[in-house]
Amino acid sequence: MSDRTSAQPPDPGSMLPDRRLLLPNALRHWAAATPDAVFLEHVDGRRLTYRAASAAAERWAAALRSAGVAPGEHVAYLIADPLDSALVWLGAAAAGNVAVPVNSAYFGRMLAHVLDDSDAVAVVVAAGFLDRLAEVADGLPGLRNVVIVGESDASGTLGQAVVSSGGRLPDSVPEVADAACGVEGDEGEGHEVEGYDTAAILYTSGTTGPSKGVVTPWAAMHGYWSWVPDDTLTTGEALYCPMPLFHISGLGALHYTLSRGGRFVTRDKFSGTAFWDDVRAAGAVAAGLVGPMTALLHSLPARPDDADNPLRGIVLGPMIAEIAAFEARFGVRVATSYGMTEVPPLVVTGWDHGPWQTSGRVRTGYPWAEVRVVDEHDVPVPVGATGELVVRAGAPWALNAGYYKMPEATARAWRNGWFHTGDAFRQDEDSRFYFVDRMKDAIRRRGENISSFEVEAFVLDAPSVAECAAFAVPGSFGGDEVMIAVVPADGDKVDPAVLAQHLADRMPGYMVPRYIDVVEQLPRNTTSLRIQKHVLRERGVTAGTWDRAAESQAARVENPADTRVENRADTRAETS
Length: 576
What we know:
- This is AMP-binding protein.
- It is built from 15 helices and 29 strands.
- It has 3 domains: about 50-190, Rossmann fold, CATH 3.40.50; about 220-440, ANL, N-terminal domain (Rossmann fold), CATH 3.40.50; about 450-575, ANL, C-terminal domain (GMP Synthetase, Chain A, domain 3).
- The longest helix has 17 residues, at about 50-65.
- Helix 1 (about 25-35) crosses helix 2, helix 2 (about 50-65) packs across helix 3 (about 80-95) and helix 4 crosses helix 5.
- The chain is an alpha/beta fold.
- The protein is about 25% helix and about 25% strand.
- The protein starts with a strand and ends with a strand.
């Protein structure tokens, strides 16, 4: 049977992580122990010490309290700058609020869905995103407070301005400039959190409906990076993580760095050509990346000084096929794991990761994980057979606490007492687990989970489209690209370029399909008439498929000023 049960904890006192390691508690600890050590650093030169970050967090907590936001209420933030995002998260935690990080690419109905569904009573928004909030504010009756922020300065002070009139938005930022909070936080007064308290509601793509809010306790937040090898980072050392702080990859890395008393170094967006310069300038000994980033780094031309860098190790998920050559070329070690927004990594490796295809073995110790590969009836399958990965933990609050306001979806995911990941795995004779495929209909592009349901909803709103199916096809650097097959309405025609521009004007840039097929009909199951996306995936890109990337490149060559098929939203990665 494919079943692995770890030993139970040695004593009941170890059933929750040490509360001193949890984000707001740890910040106060290190602000007292190493006040002048740098905690937050941006590659543009901004730096905040532990003392400054703690003071800024307490000011944010005081600002939220003065605006009438009570402990336990939900505070959303729509911010691109990683230092500002970090301070807002720390401040919300210090005030005892539940954070709702919002993808900075969201606007329109996706932004409205997250803010409305999460019951956010306050939203902290970067001044540059105020127009996005204004577009949806009338449909958010529960929003009481809007906090507008500018860029943080070297001391961690933000341009705070609070509007406390039923969520009314100002006509312009200067209108509220005089309403700056002007409050002072009292160091040491912050809210102490426990592992069972809710840290955040993290929105992840739905496959049969809109994005779902994952209720994430502090114990689970701690678990996203607590599995990494002990020598990854020590007090005072730097971890480089160019991932956004609305995504669990960035949030988990920040939480881990803080728990270790380290220095968190970041930039607004990942850049392949700047990565090693950033690492060297920061003296970073560890880094957090996702697979496509690593593939891009490996694809760049080799340099004589590739291995001349301070990195000891990279925490990476998922692994790439060229990982052995990558480690040798850059002189680093790599550890990997399998996790998702709902589940901190329970299947992990050390630096001796074994075959590149594996996600590792069941982690030992906290949270005393149990992992199985099961069939459609939740019966464990034989070793070597493929089934769905299901997980649970012996420690309380170590995994998600369900989907916010979605009891049926929560019960379905947690049926029979195990969380169902929706991913197909197999296990070998050496107790290693291998990711095989996604059993659920999701797309993952450049580290972002994309809901095919949400892509299809946008496409079906477009003129002349009768039917649509969105699905994943392989990308150039690992991960997926978004492809759609569309059926025109009777008597109409669909121009892929026009459709792509329609979508680019309405959805986040990372969601806009790269490939478009216009077809007469979609393949369907003869019994249920359900669209057979596996048929579309197997067919993939053909000679007749329209390619947005090729179209954009051709347009730029012909006319450098042509901006067709461009998107107002920023992308999450740069290649140069």
